[in-house]
Amino acid sequence: MNVCLVDCNSFYASCEQVFRPDLRNKPVVVLSNNDGFVIARNRQAKALGIPDLEPYFKVEYILKKHGVAIFSSNFPLYGDLSDRVMSTLSGFSPHIEVYSIDEMFLSLCEPDPIAFGQNIKDRIWQDVRIPVSVGISSTKTLAKLANMAAKKISKLNGVCALDTEHRRQWLLKHTPVNTVWGVGSRYAKRLAEINVHTAWDLATCHHRTIKRRFNVCLERTITELNGTPCIALDEFPQDKKQIYCTRSFGRKVTALDELQQAVAVYGNRAAEKMRMQQHLGQALHVFIHTSPFEPNYYSNSTVVKLPYPTDDSRIITHAVKTAVACLYRDNYRYLKAGVGIIDMVSKKHYQADLFHPGQPPKADKTMRVLDNLNLRYGRNTVFLGAEGTQKKWALRQQFKSPEYTTRLSDIPVVIC
Q1: What is the DSSP track for 120-154?
Q2: What is the pLDDT of residues 131-165, one digit of tens each?
Q3: Are 246 and 338 in contact, with CB atoms under 8 Å apart?
């Protein structure tokens, strides 16, 4: 039995190219919220020397000089294309783990892993037009390393299988230890003190020495590097225990009503996510703060107890608006606010108190209609009046592409 890791190449940038085939083989970058930092670059953009997580204003001249396509982050589009990739991949194996928005582990038993990996790669391109790299080995840690090799070594054509001892040893000897899954730069510095510089050095270390100097997790990494599985597929991930929605504003906010509109939007979004995992919220964490680089920095937060466990956006937005009114102070320019649902219980197993029956059935029906309309016709098709209509404080997204697959008005039109 082998483990296969499929990882989308430069995922955010690749998503922008799906509906822009004119950008194939051209440099593309994607910016963070408020167009602040470069958070994604495709291979052509990396070749120009554009660094990751660099402030946009520092590289704006270089981007324009080389004709780089610039996009604001479009998370509804990325999330939907990710779902399509994962749906296609789930057809290749009954045992899967969605590791992140652009990565999935699969359990497989194939006589020709290279052909299997190439089949996955071709199928994802055919169905979703997203390029992927495939790494295959006997453990998740080795599959991670194989995937890195598939990205970097061009002659592998995007698929690397460590199906022989020679290939495993060669890759470990040519891999810096800080790139091993679960090691990182902090552990790498300490490992260098005991002359461990490559993945091969770590794999040949004595287990007890590593466990004594570090921890049992790093000891498991050694076992995985030697081909023995220690980390199983997480086929049934745990529900989130807390759900947060936080954003920096597109411009500094000074008025209380705008601040309340913003937290109403964040509270509603957190409630949507909570309803998706069938939970009820019992308490909220609300915070606001100004820029730490301005004089008279102000930051404050509070915890709000809800009247009963609920997933009703109306109850939650009312609570966060009241909380912000208490936190608000005049003569400050607020940079950021956030809402977190910090105490949740399962809706399926919750038992209401005899004297406090909890959320009424009508609220469940109302929220179901709200979610279904927004799912069918696009987010914010229906929204709460508390969120406002102008949203002058909203994220700065001057390069945002259309939400091609999640908003009815943004569906591409082909004219024959």
Answers
A1: HHHHHHHHH---EEEEEESSHHHHHHHHHHHHH-G
A2: 999 999 999 999 999 999 999 998 999 999 998 99
A3: yes
In this prediction, residue 354 has a pLDDT band, given cuts at 50, 70 and 90, of: low
Report residue 285: phi and psi, to 5°: -115, 125
Cα separation of 410 and 397, whole Å? Answer: 16
Q: Are 5 and 100 in contact (CB under 8 A)?
A: no
Q: How many CA atoms lie within 13 A of 75 on its CB side?
A: 8
For residue 101, give both structure tokens: 């928005």
For 370-394, b where at least 16 C-beta lie within 10 A, e where not — what string? bbeebeeebeeeebbebbbeeeebb
3-state helix, strand, coil in the chain (%, to 5): 45, 20, 35
Q: Beta strands 38-41 and 28-31: pairing type?
A: antiparallel
Query: 3-class DSSP state for residue 103?
Result: strand
**Residue 336, pLDDT above cutoff 90:** yes
Residue 19: in which H helix or E strand, if any?
none
Query: Among the listed ranges 251-255, 262-266, 399-403, 406-410, which one has the minimum average pLDDT value?
Result: 406-410
Read off φ and ψ for residue 213, nearest 5 degrees.
-80, -25
Q: Half-sphere exposure of residue 20, counting CA atoms within 13 Å on the CB side? A: 17
Using alpha carbons, list the distances in angstroms from residue 311 to 38, 182, 341. Answer: 35, 36, 10
Q: Cβ–Cβ contacts within 10 Å for residue 165, how many?
A: 9
Cβ atoms 86, 222 nearer than 8 A: no
Among 64, 31, 32, smallest CA distance to 48 is for 64
Which residue, among 348, 257, 259, has the nearest Cα to 311 in the 3D structure?
348
* Ramachandran category for residue 106: left, alpha or beta (phi over 0 → left; psi -120 to 50 → alpha): beta
Q: Assign 110 to helix, strand or coil.
A: coil
Query: pLDDT of 355-407, one tens digit each?
Result: 777 888 899 999 999 999 998 888 888 999 999 888 888 878 889 999 999 88
Kindly state the greatest CA–CA separation across the chain: 69
